[in-house]
């Protein structure tokens, strides 16, 4: 990614929210989008890296304003609080980047009783998007970017979106959550058709970040080694390029319902295009988050 802003993307006056913004590709995307002039709402869990990033962005860019909101996306009460803070303090939102993600070696549940990988990677973003959709509708040509992964090819085609304690496998759990991200992006694009809001999925590729560091040093090093052996290991700056491209590239105006890798559209798995599966994901997500009566969930099309 160039050191300066993309000359074709001037985001001055735009407001962009990025989840998972305090490290890895989220951090790199935040720096690039700030250079393009957008005001940033950064969402992250860890206090120290968040404060460091906030200071860095304020030093690097005088064009944009930056606010940090600490939130654990696996906790629905925290996501609702985040949604309220954003809608109370901003009159609209131009860009939403659903980037935060995690993988857990052992089975864990949230305070809501939901498997943690699925809750963090998909449900938190589903709920946040529902809470912010009216604010996105107030912007001109708003964009939603949801980060997927090629791992979704390993999810299979069964009807279960998350694993139980008895059959938990970290790779399958993560693959299912990434499939959910992509299916969500596609179905969201369908429901937003005609509104001027676009929804696309992004694959940053294998990236050398602290992802999965929560599982311990050995697990993290094993992940990095596996990616390196497959020759699919990029820097966080390189991995963030696709997020920045989708967030601001003028050539993508009106483009929706696509899956991007290295700034180009690519094909996702066959099951990711299954509308029946998309509706099952949407319905269970609405039920688990209490969004069954939300306008995004009560009809096939969202009306502005």
Structural features:
Rossmann fold; disordered N terminus; 42% helix; 12% strand; alpha/beta; eight-stranded mixed β-sheet; globular; 304 residues
- Overall residue-averaged pLDDT value: 89
How much of the residues is beta strand, in percent? 5-15%
The biggest sheet, with number of strands, parallel, antiparallel or mixed sense and barrel status, is: 8 strands, mixed
| Helical stretch tally | 9
* Rg from alpha-carbon coordinates: 18 Å
CATH topology (level 3) name: Rossmann fold
In total, the number of domains comes to 1
Shape descriptor: globular
Q: Looking at this structure, what is the CATH superfamily?
A: NAD(P)-binding Rossmann-like Domain
Q: Identify the strand order in the major beta sheet.
A: 3-2-1-4-5-6-7-8
Uncertain runs are 1-5, 209-231
Our measurement of the CA-to-CA distance between the termini, rounded to an integer number of angstroms, reads 35 Å
The topology string of helices and strands comes to EHEHEHEHEHEHHEEHH
CATH class: Alpha Beta
| Name given to the CATH architecture | 3-Layer(aba) Sandwich
Q: Which oligomerization state do the chains in this entry correspond to? A: single chain
Helix content: 40-55%
Q: Which structural category fits the helices and strands?
A: alpha/beta
Query: How many E-type strands?
Result: 8
Fold topology:
Elements: E1 15-19, H1 24-35, E2 39-44, H2 47-60, E3 66-70, H3 76-89, E4 95-98, H4 116-137, E5 143-147, H5 170-191, E6 198-203, H6 217-229, H7 236-248, E7 259-261, E8 264-265, H8 275-289, H9 295-298
